[in-house]
Amino acid sequence: MTVRLGVLGPVRAWDGNGHTLPLKGPRHRQVLARLLIAHGRVVPVEVLVDDLWEEEDPPADAVGALRTFVAALRRALEPDRAPRTPPSLLITQGPGYALRTHRVDAHEFEHALTEARSDTDPARTAHTLEQALGLWRGPAYTDVAHTTWARAERARLSELRLGAVETLARARLDTHDTDRAIADLDAHVADHPWREQAWQLLATALYRAGRQGEALQVLRRARTLLAHDLGLDPSRALRRLEHDILHQADHLDEPERPTDVVERLWHSTARAYRAGPGPRARLESTVGLLRTLALTGPEGLVGARERRVEAIDAARELGDPELTARVIGAFDVPANWTRSDDPDQATRVVAAAEQTLTGLGHDAHRAVRARLLTTIALESRGARSPRPRRAALEAEELARESGDPALLAFTLNGRWMQTFHRTGLATERGRIGDELVRVAARQGAVSFEILGHLIGVQTGAALGDVERADHHVGTVESLARRHERPLVEVFTTWYRALRLDLQGQDPERVADAYRAAAEHTASAGMPGLEEGLLALALACLRSRHGLPWSQEPGTEWGPHAPWALPARLLAQDRAEEAALALDRFEDPGPGLLMEAHWALIAHAALTLDHRPALRRAHTALTPARGEQAGAAGGLFTAGPVSDLLERVEHALQPSSPESAGISTHGWPDGESHLR
Question: How far apart are CA 328 and CA 345, in angstroms?
Answer without folding.
Answer: 13
